[in-house]
Amino acid sequence: MLTHEMKLVRGQKVEVTMELSERKKEILRAITDVYIETAEPVGSKTIAQNSGLGLSSATIRSEMAELTALGYLEQPHTSAGRVPSAQGYRFYVNELMNRHRLSLQEAEEINRNLTHRLGQLDKMISDIGRFAAKLTSYPTYALTTTVSNLTAERFDLIFVDSNRFIIVIMLSDNSVQNRLVQLTSEVDPVTLGKLSTVFNARFTGITEGAITPELISATERATGDSSGLVSVIAGYAIEVLTSRGSGEAFVTGATRLFEHPEYQDISKARELLNYLSDGSRIMNLPAPDDNQDIKITIGPENLADELKDSSVIVVRYDLGNDAQGLIGVVGPTRMDYSTVSARLSYLARGLSWLFSGGAILPPGDTSRDNGLEDGFKK
Amino acid sequence: MLTHEMKLVRGQKVEVTMELSERKKEILRAITDVYIETAEPVGSKTIAQNSGLGLSSATIRSEMAELTALGYLEQPHTSAGRVPSAQGYRFYVNELMNRHRLSLQEAEEINRNLTHRLGQLDKMISDIGRFAAKLTSYPTYALTTTVSNLTAERFDLIFVDSNRFIIVIMLSDNSVQNRLVQLTSEVDPVTLGKLSTVFNARFTGITEGAITPELISATERATGDSSGLVSVIAGYAIEVLTSRGSGEAFVTGATRLFEHPEYQDISKARELLNYLSDGSRIMNLPAPDDNQDIKITIGPENLADELKDSSVIVVRYDLGNDAQGLIGVVGPTRMDYSTVSARLSYLARGLSWLFSGGAILPPGDTSRDNGLEDGFKK
DNA sequence: TTTAGCACTCGGAGGGTTCGAGTGCTAACG
DNA sequence: CGTTAGCACTCGAACCCTCCGAGTGCTAAA
Known about the structure:
Radius of gyration of chain A: 28 Å
Number of domains of chain A: 3
Low-confidence stretches of chain A: 1-17, 359-378
CATH superfamily of the largest domain in chain A: GAF domain
Oligomer: homodimer
């Protein structure tokens, strides 16, 4: 059935399959499942009794020894059971994992939360993160990808009184920003009307970099503005384009870490929490490749040293207008990959749908969870 | 000099002062200072050597024994040194503490950060918290007090295209909120103009509670609106008044906890972090009384059980328009009360100044730190 | 090829001992 | 009479040792 080769392992002839034998796969899967649940190294006896393979512990032991030699399992110390290695988790995620199928309750729970029409985008993003943390019981990061070609689409200047007015800018990502400006000088509605016409003509459709001092001073000359109104408005436009375009990051549910035994050691927890509290480093966390919607990064596959003992699952969703958001969870390598990835995927698809102008989801509609069907085997 | 009385302590006649003798005060101060710095119970020898009182450890010991009997000190166990009790900290804070005077560098650092003109209020508040956490090296909470009589001052409806428009609402606290509305039906600029006139006439100056279903349906009849525009706009007004009026809470710098030895025990840290991650409970944290700008709550003085071993220092600042903000830090009872309260006070005064329309602070202007002069004694 | 049997390994829990910082008390001192 | 040196005592922290048992790898038999 599979290509075989013979190999000398510790002076003994041992069968080594290029791909693992079905039996080894079953054993690896069983060990990983148990370890994910219990966080305790798994012994041969446990597997012999629970896997339903009908093999004795001695047989399991020899298979486990081979899986260890092949790098799929590790032994914390000689007289302990086995634990999946990073390679083992990777194989489990790619081929063995029971794809978790969302229950109706889970899907409804997610739908219910999605339909809460939320307010401003940044608040919405942090709310999404909070919800994801609850959903997965791991710390979560939520961020929006940087938008490279963000432009202002529309300027409105609202006259409030002779020394106050409101700048309203609508951006190409359909977000709207405003600021109340207090002046020491005076304005009138007519001036503001003229200025907004000029700004709509000259400052729309251009990126933040194109708003040069030259453009500003040329506009000042053209409008005869001497009181600095033009530069106030242009400055706000730059500020908005910069901050909005550079994305934002939120971390929520950090205390969830403590729920997992691997972070009972304060220094482990501290290291990871410190990492997560640094906004700039969160931007460097893994993200799905362009052709994928989900990415699972296991332990040492992470670039950051602080994450070498942790795994990250991150999904992408569309915010419309080329902008995208990411939601990721961080947990121990012994993470519940199956459930977490299913829930995050479903959440991401719901969000994309919502941002593409989708209406409120019909409650209990789990028909959209394509790709979440039962996987390899129950 | 002081009223004395004689009292039987453990069968021995012991001098008990109604107020503590100067020497006892000095010893209590010395013990508290050392303990705040080292987090280790303080022995009589340490004090004898470092306090400069010129007394032997035996004398110190007997004074310490009396301070313990009076409730100012505690003994973790018989053969350990002394630790200030909550009562001891309270006395220290009220009477003994060296009032920390900000250095020029500290004041400049704060000024520099204050002058960063920040954007939206909610983001600003979380930024203030972040800065305070950095300033004090303790976890920080920042929140705005609830504004009871918040009203909308002004409505503007901006026509974008036939099925999109922007609602802009200016509130009585001078904040401006907006939302882009996507319609399935169509609108035109004239309708929007009429609607904004009506909303400015009927919906301004009234609180959220006054926006009743009756008012909405009456407005619908008056404008002949059948496509639900009135209720969309009114609904947004309610949402904005509610969320803005109820204040917001942010916690930052939670991982600072780990810097202090009392939170090396994971369960302590976990308990406190869990408490701090619950937004609704943060609202219940102590706040200064009406006639004060700063409040220090020590250990068991806190109402919440989770805070019985922690102290909270919180300052208030004015946001203008009767609204106020709070910044608090949470740390071990062995908190550096002196430095933290000085820095927070200075920060709060700077913020009040800024929100009252104050201009950028002159760099290095420490003249405003009234009340931060050297206190009791250096 | 599988399994029962067995000697072996080694981390963790439990218990005992040592160490020393700090105490309270007493008696002597200025 | 307050202050101090001296001293016996206390008790937690650190260390060491032993025991226990889960789990292993190997071997020989089925």
